[in-house]
Amino acid sequence: SDIEKGTYPHYMLKEMDEQPTVIRKIIQAYEGDNGELTIDAEILEALRAADRLYIIAAGTSSHAGLIGKQYFEKMAGIPVEVHISSEFGYNMPLLSEKPLFIFITQSGETADSRQVLVKIKELGYPTLTITNVPGSTLSREADHTLLLHAGPEIAVASTKAYVAQIAVLALAAYVTARANGKDLEFDLKQELAIVANGIQTIIDSKDVLEDIAEDYLKIARNAFFIGRNIDFYVSLEGALKLKEISYIQAEGFAGGELKHGTIALIEEGTPVFALVTQASVALNIRGNVKEVAARGAHPCIIAMAGIDEDGDRLVIPHVHELLTPLVSVVPLQLISYYAALHRRCDVDKPRNLAKSVTVE
Ligand code: G6P
Description:
Radius of gyration: 20 Å
Function: Catalyzes the first step in hexosamine metabolism, converting fructose-6P into glucosamine-6P using glutamine as a nitrogen source.
GO biological process, one term: protein N-linked glycosylation
Low-confidence stretches: none
Number of helices: 14
Structural class: alpha/beta
Largest sheet: 5 strands, parallel
Number of strands: 10
Order of helices and strands: HHHHEHEHEHEHEHHHEHEEHEEH
Strand content: 15-25%
Helix content: 40-55%
Keywords: Aminotransferase, Cytoplasm, Glutamine amidotransferase, Repeat, Transferase
Shape: globular
EC number: 2.6.1.16
Subcellular location: Cytoplasm
Bound molecules: 6-O-phosphono-alpha-D-glucopyranose
Distance between the termini: 29 Å
Strand order of the largest sheet: 2-1-3-4-5
């Protein structure tokens, strides 16, 4: 397996580097004969027939699910609920008349998610698994499968699979919306190609992210990730990455929620990573940054080109406003990676964690 890693010191670094290629592979894999993005006709029918989607997932996959909800609701107009698999059994929601259950799982083996699938099949509802592993348990047991085409992910901390999950969710929502006659004013294929280039630009400036990790996290005890709207969901993933591999206590928060408790934790020098990719909430999240800065925090603003301002620590390439998570997560992954390296942590095999958890 050292051979597969090639010249890379860690699988995680290799897998982060593969992300532009993964996006391009997904475009190819889901391109129909006419060059337009498409999904299997039966899956499209299942999506169109549903009056509500129930996304079930754990860990990083559940963070991708939160973004998938935005896609299906905003593009296709289909209501979506996102549930953590381990909790679903206790808090089974009242189901709509025609639910479709979507299981998002990189490995296709997560026991918490499988347990929900088994129960839903007993109830007789249709199921779709979105997974990176063809032939995996959840793929075999669900009615339908959409593949991520990300190639094997070895590092315990998920990177390219998360990005692939978001891209495939965007694609499925887009294709469903178009089939339903929704007037979408953008060409997803083109926008995803722009995303692939945007990710590459960030990957090519790794040294900047190494500097940020050193500046902000070398001696940090904790760190906060804040965002609003879709940036909030990416903040959750940024915090999870940092926790997983560097063991720094980290939390993701909605910018507006900080003042309702968490701001009490801000001390002199507390790192606060703020994502600013959504024009509609840029002013508000910048306001939150000012609030924490006034209390001594060390803010690191990561803004998208076009809505960036002087003093932002990192400007990421401009992409379609719905697709920003695909790009904004990449600096967070790299910052976590370098923070873990500074602390001499075992990046690919963090303590206490497993790549796929086959116990409930
Ligand atoms: C484990 C991994 C996480 C992953 C989660 C869900 O806890 O360490 O990185 O997000 O399982 O895995 P899945 O394969 O279902 O996406």
